[in-house]
Specification:
The chain is α/β, with parallel strands linked by helices. Helix content is 40%, strand content 11%. The chain is built from twelve helices and seven strands. Strands 2-1-5-4-3-6-7 form a seven-stranded mixed sheet, covered by helices on one side. Strand 6 and strand 7 form a beta hairpin. The longest helix is centred in the middle third of the chain and has 16 residues. The two termini are 30 Å apart. About 8% of the residues have low confidence.
Length: 308
C-alpha cells in the first residue's frame, strides 16, 4: 500500500494487507507527453474519526479525482495499477455489500471511455481472477462480472466471457450447497461427497506430483486444528484427483495420510461438466455437515484458523 494511503489509515489502527503485486514497467517511448504524474486520494473529512468510517468513505470516493474520459491513464500503470492494488486492500476490509456497491460504481464511472473501461477490466482480471495472483478474490470478482454484464458499453459478444465466468463462480459459492459428485477409491469402491457423514468435510482437489499440491499436503499434515478435528472424527479430508492419468495418481497414493479419503473422478465428470472451478489447482473447500460451503479456494492456514 502506498505511503499516502497508509498514512490515512494507520493513525486509527486500521490494519490491511499490503498488495504484493507491483505495477508493470512501461518504456518511456510508449508514454505520451502529458501531465499525469500522481494518483490523488480524496480528502477524508476529519469528523470521520473511526477506522470503519474512514475506510467506508475512502472506498466510496477512492476514484473521484480520476477523469476516466482521459485515456492517458491507461499509459501510466505505475500510477493506475498501483492505485488498483491499494483499492483492493481497502475493499477487503469493508463490508461485502459496501465493496459490491463501490466496485460497480467505479465501473460505471469508467464508462466515460471504453479504453479506460477495458483497462480497468484487465486489472480486475489480473488481480482478482488470475490463479497466480496472491490477491485473487472471487467475491470481489463477482461484483466486477456483474458490472461488466450490466454495462451498456460492452456488446453482447464482449459479454460472453464474463457471463460464462459468472455462471461458474456461482457454483459452490460460499453459503451455497456444494455440488455432489461420485468418486472412486483405489480399491474400485465408489461413493459420493454427500455420503460423508461428518460435521466438516475438507474437499482437496489436486493433481499428483504438482509442486503446489505437495506443499498443500504438507501444510495440511502439519495443521494442528485440522488434525485435531480429524482425530476427533469431526473432519474428513476428501482428496480428489479430477483427471485421467490414473497411473500417475496411483504412484502418489503414499503421499496422502491413511486417515484421508483419497479418490479420483473416474468419468472426469467434474471437469467435463464444469461442476467445480479448476482454474487453480490445488483448491480447498471447507464444507459443513450439510455440505454448505464455508470456505472456498482457501489456504490450509485459513482453514486451520477457522476450525480453531
Amino acid at each position: 500500500m502506498n505511503n499516502k494511503l497508509f498514512s490515512l489509515l494507520l493513525p486509527l489502527c486500521l490494519c490491511t494487507a499490503c498488495g504484493n503485486s507491483k505495477a508493470n514497467s512501461v518504456s518511456k517511448a510508449d508514454v505520451p507527453t502529458d501531465t499525469i504524474t500522481v494518483f490523488t486520494l480524496p480528502a477524508i473529512p476529519p469528523m470521520l474519526n473511526t477506522p470503519e468510517l474512514r475506510a467506508d468513505f475512502l472506498v466510496r470516493h477512492y476514484w473521484e479525482n480520476i477523469n476516466f474520459a482521459d485515456t492517458n491513464y491507461v499509459h501510466h500503470p505505475e500510477i493506475t495499477e498501483q492505485a488498483w492494488v491499494d483499492y483492493i486492500d481497502i475493499l477487503k476490509i469493508v463490508p461485502a455489500k459496501t465493496a459490491d456497491v463501490a466496485i460497480k460504481d467505479v465501473f460505471t464511472q469508467a464508462e466515460k471511455a471504453k479504453t479506460s473501461y477495458l483497462y480497468l477490466a484487465e486489472l480486475a482480471d489480473k488481480y482478482l481472477y488470475d490463479p497466480n495472483s496472491p490477491m485473487r478474490n472471487e467475491e470481489l470478482y463477482i461484483s466486477v462480472l456483474d458490472a461488466l454484464i450490466a454495462s451498456p458499453i460492452l456488446d453482447e459478444t464482449e459479454k460472453i466471457r464474463p457471463q460464462g465466468r459468472r455462471e461458474l463462480a456461482q457454483k459452490n459459492r460460499v453459503g451455497t450447497k456444494a455440488i455432489d459428485f461420485t468418486y472412486t477409491l483405489a480399491s474400485g469402491k465408489k461413493s459420493t461427497l454427500y455420503a460423508l457423514n461428518v460435521p466438516y468435510t475438507l474437499l482437496f482437489i489436486n493433481n499428483p506430483g504438482c509442486h503446489a499440491c505437495s506443499e498443500t499436503i504438507e501444510a495440511l499434515k502439519n495443521a494442528p486444528a485440522i488434525n485435531r478435528a480429524i482425530s476427533q472424527k469431526q473432519l474428513q479430508i476428501l482428496s480428489l484427483y479430477p483427471d485421467e492419468e490414473l497411473d500417475e495418481w496411483r504412484k502418489h497414493i503414499s503421499d496422502f495420510p491413511a486417515d484421508w479419503t483419497n479418490g479420483y473422478d473416474a468419468q472426469q465428470t467434474i471437469s467435463k461438466n464444469n461442476l467445480y472451478d479448476l482454474k487453480a489447482i490445488p483448491t480447498l473447500y471447507l464444507l459443513d455437515k450439510d455440505k454448505i460451503v464455508l470456505l472456498k479456494d482457501a489456504t490450509a492456514m485459513e482453514i486451520d484458523k477457522y476450525l480453531n
